[in-house]
Design a protein that fits this description.
The complex is a heterodimer of chains A (567) and B (640). Chain A contains twelve helices and 18 strands. Chain A is α+β, with helices and mostly antiparallel strands and 567 residues long. In chain A, the strands form seven sheets. A four-stranded antiparallel beta sheet of chain A has the order 5-6-7-8. Chain A is rod-shaped and about 150 Å long. The two termini of chain A are 23 Å apart. Chain B is α+β, with helices and mostly antiparallel strands. In chain B, helix 2 runs antiparallel to helix 3, helix 2 packs antiparallel against helix 13 and helix 12 runs antiparallel to helix 13. Classes of the chains: A alpha+beta (567), B alpha+beta (640). At the A-B interface, helix 2, helix 3, strand 12, strand 13 and helix 11 of A face helix 1, helix 2, strand 5 and helix 7 of B.
Chain lengths: 567, 640
């Protein structure tokens, strides 16, 4: 035992206390930093000295390192939970917007517009001779078409925003993964050959990982050299100091151009499984496209059902000439073939053309059969034009696939009825709506210009209302093209689908939030700084410092005493 | 709601405690905001995702309300229209009462000719008032025009008032399953279109390839329900899907396309025939409980042996405007070359059908003839009717040298006409005993004819011919126009004459009183179809008054009484409809109220519970804030 040994021990105590105070100071100043991991100074006893045979005395304290208080398993689970929570809240956020576009319980939506439209037909049925009420029907039709196209535009622009957000998020993810890779490298270098950890760099990397986990479902595997490998599913994203990079590429999935998150190095699609913001956004693209498709289906069936009835009806006056609004691509092929290229497919059947002498009011009717074959041989536009031309008083011409039927003679006009084939509706002759889905639905422009052609009648009498009555009942009618559902049912299931998605997402947000909170709590409990605890530490370290200083002072006195003895 | 409950903690860091408190405050505030929104809007379900189940029900109810709004409009419209009809009929009824009062006063003896003539003027005024009632407009449409409401339904023609409106009455939807008629029939009220030649012939068209399935009554008379049938030949069988067949040729093509053995289908007459060129034992069966084979008349569950054909039952195709004339009468067609002669009042028109190929052409030719008749297919779809659109005229339809009118079944007077129906149902006045008339030929030879026992006009002709033996006089039925024709070929210098005997009026009643021309007596048509009607009855009364003829005044008054009771009948049914509309309106209102209250229950905020919840949350928030403030301000550092 030597006094100098004690002096050394005191000095090591001072150094230890100083280091501890520095760690505590660092902890206290980072108390508000969410990314910070509480650090503790690690000490070890100084090596024993044998002061006499068999008797050992410690030689003070050694600072062995400053360690982060972290549980990597909690961190991993937290990253997972963060991905899930971000996915749910992104889904909720966007689907809520879809829901608000549909505005199902609001005052203006597809349902109210459809009701207004069909109701106007019912009102027309009350006074079918009224030209003014026809104007109302056209306006209601235009309002409905407008509602369809505006909802569709909003939905597609939402889908566009989703895809641009996806690009932006993918850029962030790309940056984060590069940062993680570069931090990996720095950590490996810093750690090489030393026993301590570069805690700040590791905190920084953990913060980047947490941010990355908000964007995509990542799992990280700690490596002995201090780096972490980051995986998406089973695919590595960051491997040591290498990042494969993240990008968005438009890929064709199920025949549709779909923006997809890929690894930048080989354009391989990332297995996001719908998690993280990017996973949610990928799915949202498809979800919103699904809603757009449903709106299109609704519009398509509405157009088809209304037009089928309307094209077999008659207005207040006949046509002197009527031009098809749809073009046939191949006029030699059966009208139901894909080569003919009609949006609405006619079926076998027939329709009746009435040539009315306006002087006598007498009509001559001719049945025009439509026999389809799906290819060549069936009723084509060419053969239809020929059979129409065979009717006395009718001149049919086909200009570039557009059929025009005109009355030949000055006091003759045309009307149509009993179209069991849907041919007139498919060609766009005497139809109410033009277009084939929500994007291009409109009121037939020739009809809008001439409301007297709005067909309320079915038997040719100008005061008849049977077509108006039939159209007014369409909304609730079961349609075979909708597998027996009605237009109202279809709209309802569209809204229900979105509502269920939003409410599921809302529930998911809450559920994943509570998981995330629980894990965050555990993490904070372990890794967070407690000021009070640090204050206690500080007092203890102060006392340790004071003690060590006192020790040195006492030892100093003792040394002086010993020196004095020498004098 | 997220919380930290359930997590056992070893340590509470400063960040954790502040985070936890922030979360708690956030949660409470979020809930407060939701409840506050519910309270301030009064609506619990603002967007469907708030409660998808309730939202779906709410949207259904919203649609119901919207539909009910439409029904309310329709009912109001029906009510005002029916109300207008009611009050108009009331006006008409008053006019008729007035006319009858005048008639009953003026029929008394002692009323002078001049006062009757003056009253005739009054009746003329009533007539024009009734006509303007018939052409009354409401809401821009003619009230009694049916679905031809854009033109005046009653038109004054040379012989009387003509009805050019329609008997199709408009309907509208007043609840999901009920349509009500909101018009009254002008033809019924004014008794137009009530007479004419109702076709007696079943025109029985044959099948053609283009005959539509929907125009078939089918083998059982209930239409054809399309589905799948199974055709077999004894060894194999195939299913033939006919559900998309539109025309008969689609059916034939489908069966032929199936190619079961050598079985082929073809159209024969009014039925289908399945035959084979091989040894097929043809069977036709229903599939899945359908009735397609039966409706198509070709059900054959047990084959008749190898090579035997299956002759289907008649499919009873209906007569439609598009039916070709050649296919009528089981393919025999009609005599289209000669045509018919229509006489209506002062108008006589010969209508020929030389260029007509379809029934519609034929109807158009008749309707366009200018004879003021309305030719249409009867409601059963078996033949045609030719109705007189003019009131107070006599309509006769006869042959024009051929058999057209008989083929169509529209000849008003023919050999088969019962004698008792002649002269407007008064029949023929026979002698009490002995002969009815004597016919003397140009050579002076005469013979007497006793008609007793003759049932039909043909019997009369036969009796004349039997009595005329050896006098070169023959009786026959006219082939041009209608009437009995007596032809004298004896070549004498005198005149062929018909003289009544034993006070019998038979000769005149049979139309044989006109003198002979070139030794031929052309009998007149003694079986015209007289059309009555309110306007003609008023006109008759005016004429009778002007002519100072009490008997005719009485007759006209009796007819007007029938007119009035018809008007009252219609008015009664209109009143009942109005009542129905009113009942429906009030029940619709009740329904609307209950739908609205149900919707409120689903959608609206339950205020007491929401406000209680709000207060609770407010307290919780206050507590959170207070404890947070206190806890966060606590630090050991304060005490150092």
């Amino acid at each position: 035992m030597s006094l100098l040994g004690a002096l050394n021990a005191g000095q090591s105590g001072l150094a230890a206390a100083q280091a501890s105070i520095q760690v505590t100071g660092n902890n206290i100043s980072n108390a508000g930093n969410a990314n910070y991991t509480r650090q503790t100074a690690q000490f070890a006893d100084g090596p024993d000295q044998q002061i006499q045979t068999g008797v050992f005395v410690g030689s003070g304290v050694d600072l062995t390192g400053v360690q982060r208080q972290i549980d990597n398993s909690i961190e991993a689970r937290l990253q997972n939970a963060t991905s899930e929570n971000q996915s749910a809240s992104t889904t909720q956020q966007w689907m809520t917007q879809v829901e608000s576009v549909l505005n199902a319980l609001g005052t203006t939506n597809l349902s109210t517009s459809m009701n207004g439209f069909f109701s106007s037909w019912s009102t027309l049925a009350n006074s079918p001779q009224d030209a003014g009420q026809r104007q109302v029907v056209i306006q209601q039709g235009q309002a409905l078409a407008q509602e369809f196209s505006s909802e569709r535009t909003q939905l597609t622009s939402l889908a566009g925003s989703v895809s641009s957000q996806m690009t932006a998020q993918a850029q962030s993810a790309d940056q984060l993964s590069s940062q993680i890779a570069s931090l990996n490298q720095q950590i490996v270098v810093a750690k090489a050959g030393s026993s301590g950890d570069p805690n700040d760099l590791m905190d920084q990397r953990d913060a980047d990982l947490t941010q990355l986990s908000q964007l995509m479902p990542v799992s990280s595997v700690q490596q002995p050299d201090g780096s972490v490998n980051v995986y998406v599913g089973t695919e590595p994203l960051v491997w040591g100091a290498q990042s494969r990079g993240v990008a968005v590429q438009t890929q064709t999935i199920n025949g549709q151009a779909t923006p997809t998150v890929v690894f930048k190095d080989n354009n391989q699609a990332m297995p996001l499984a719908g998690n993280g913001q990017l996973g949610a956004l990928t799915d949202l693209g498809a979800r919103i496209t699904g809603v757009v498709d449903q709106v299109d289906t609704l519009a398509h069936n509405l157009i088809s059902a209304v037009n089928q009835l309307h094209s077999s009806g008659q207005g207040l006056q006949g046509f002197t000439s009527v031009t098809a609004s749809n073009t046939v691509a191949d006029t030699t092929q059966s009208l139901d073939s894909t080569a003919a290229g009609l949006d609405f497919t006619p079926t076998n059947g027939s329709f009746v053309v009435h040539v009315t002498n306006t002087t006598t009011g007498q009509a001559t009717s001719t049945l025009v059969p439509v026999t389809l074959s799906g290819g060549p041989g069936g009723t084509s536009l060419d053969s239809l034009t020929a059979s129409l031309n065979a009717i006395s008083g009718v001149t049919a011409t086909d200009t570039g696939g557009v059929l025009k039927i005109a009355a030949s003679g000055s006091n003759v006009n045309l009307s149509f009825s009993q179209d069991s084939s849907g041919t007139l509706a498919a060609l766009g002759i005497n139809t109410f709506f033009g277009g084939s889905n929500a994007s291009d639905i409109s009121v037939n422009s020739t009809l809008a210009a001439n409301p007297n052609n709005v067909a309320a009648a079915q038997n040719g009498d100008p005061g008849d209302n049977q077509t108006a009555l039939a159209i007014s009942q369409l909304a609730t009618q079961s349609l075979s093209s909708l597998n027996g559902a009605s237009l109202n049912d279809t709209y309802q299931s569209l809204v229900n689908g979105v509502a269920t998605q939003v409410s599921t997402a809302t529930n998911n947000v809450q559920a994943t939030q509570s998981v995330q909170n629980a894990l965050q709590t555990q993490r904070d409990s372990l890794s967070g700084v407690d000021i009070n605890e640090e204050a206690v530490n500080l007092i203890r370290q102060q006392q340790a410092f004071q003690g060590a200083a006192k020790l040195i002072s006492v030892v100093n006195q003792l040394v002086q005493t010993v020196i004095g003895m020498v004098q | 709601m997220s919380s930290i409950s359930g997590v056992q903690l070893a340590r509470m860091s400063s960040l954790l405690s502040s985070d936890t408190m922030t979360q708690q405050v956030n949660n409470v505030q979020l809930q407060l905001a939701q409840v506050q929104n519910q309270i301030s809007t009064g609506i619990r379900v603002n967007v469907p995702s708030d409660d998808p189940g309730a939202a779906s029900a709410i949207m259904g109810l919203q649609r119901t309300l919207s539909a009910q709004g439409t029904y309310t409009t329709n009912l109001q419209q029906s009510q005002s229209q029916l109300g207008e009809v009611d009050s108009t009929l009331s006006d008409l009824n008053n006019l008729l009462t007035q006319a009858q009062t005048i008639a009953s006063q003026d029929v008394n003896t002692g009323v002078t000719a001049s006062s009757r003539a003056a009253d005739a003027q009054v009746i003329q005024t009533i007539y024009s008032q009734a006509l303007s009632i018939g052409n009354k407009q409401f809401n821009g449409a003619y009230l009694f025009g049916g679905d031809k409401s854009t033109t005046a339904p009653f038109v004054q023609s040379a012989d009387g008032v003509q009805f050019v409106g329609s008997t199709n009455l408009l309907q509208n939807q007043v609840d999901p399953s009920t349509k009500i008629t909101f018009q009254a029939s002008g033809a019924q009220i004014f008794n137009s279109l009530s007479s004419g030649a109702n076709g007696t012939a079943n025109l029985a068209p044959n099948l053609t390839g283009t005959t539509l399935i929907t125009d078939l009554k089918g083998a059982t008379g209930t239409g054809v329900s399309l589905g799948t049938i199974q055709i077999g030949n004894g060894s194999t069988s195939k299913l033939v899907d006919l559900s998309h067949a539109n025309s008969v040729s689609d059916v034939v093509n489908a069966i032929n396309g199936a190619g079961v053995g050598n079985i082929t289908a073809q159209i024969s007459g009014d039925h289908l025939v399945l035959s084979t060129s091989g040894n097929d034992n043809i069977t036709v069966n229903e599939v899945g409980g359908g009735a397609t084979a039966q409706d198509l008349g070709i059900l054959k569950t047990t084959g008749s042996g190898a090579g035997a054909s299956v002759t289907g039952a008649g499919l009873q195709p209906q007569v439609t405007p598009l039916t070709s004339i050649a296919s009528l009468n089981n393919g025999a067609g009609i005599d289209a070359t000669h045509g018919i002669i229509i006489t209506n009042g002062s108008i006589t028109k010969t209508v020929t059908f030389g260029s007509a190929t379809t029934v519609q052409n034929l109807l158009n030719d008749i309707n366009n003839s200018g004879a003021n008749v309305l030719a249409q297919i009867n409601s059963a779809g078996t033949g045609i009717n030719i109705l007189n659109t003019v009131q107070g005229t006599n309509l006769t339809i006869g042959e024009n040298g051929g058999t057209t009118a008989a083929d169509l079944g529209v000849r008003t007077f023919s050999p088969s006409t019962p004698v008792s129906e002649l002269n407007g149902g008064q029949g023929v006045g026979l002698a009490a005993s002995g002969a009815d008339f004597q016919i003397t030929n140009s050579a002076g030879a005469s013979f007497s004819v006793t008609l007793s026992g003759a049932q039909t006009v043909q019997d009369v002709i036969n009796k004349i011919n039997a009595a005329a033996t050896g006098t070169n006089v023959t009786a026959s039925f006219s082939t041009t126009g209608n009437g009995i024709v007596l032809t004298d070929t004896s070549g004498g210098s005198g005149n062929l004459t018909v003289t009544a005997q034993n006070s019998s009026t038979a000769a005149a009643d049979l139309g044989l009183s006109s003198p002979a021309l070139n030794n031929v007596v052309t009998g007149s048509d003694v079986n015209p179809v007289a059309s009555g009607g309110l306007f003609s009855d008023l006109n008759n009364l005016a004429s009778a008054l002007a002519a100072n003829d009490p008997a005719k005044i009485t007759a006209a008054a009796t007819a007007l009484q029938a007119d009035q009771s018809r008007v009252q009948l219609v008015r009664g049914s209109v009143g009942a409809q109005e009542q129905q509309v009113q009942d429906m309106q009030s029940s619709l209102q009740d329904e609307q109220t209950s739908v609205q209250s149900l919707m409120a229950q689903l959608q609206d905020t339950n205020m007491p519970s929401a406000i209680t919840q709000y207060t609770t949350l407010q307290t919780a928030l206050q507590a959170s804030l207070q404890t947070s403030a206190y806890a966060l301000s606590l630090s050991l550092l304060n005490f150092l």
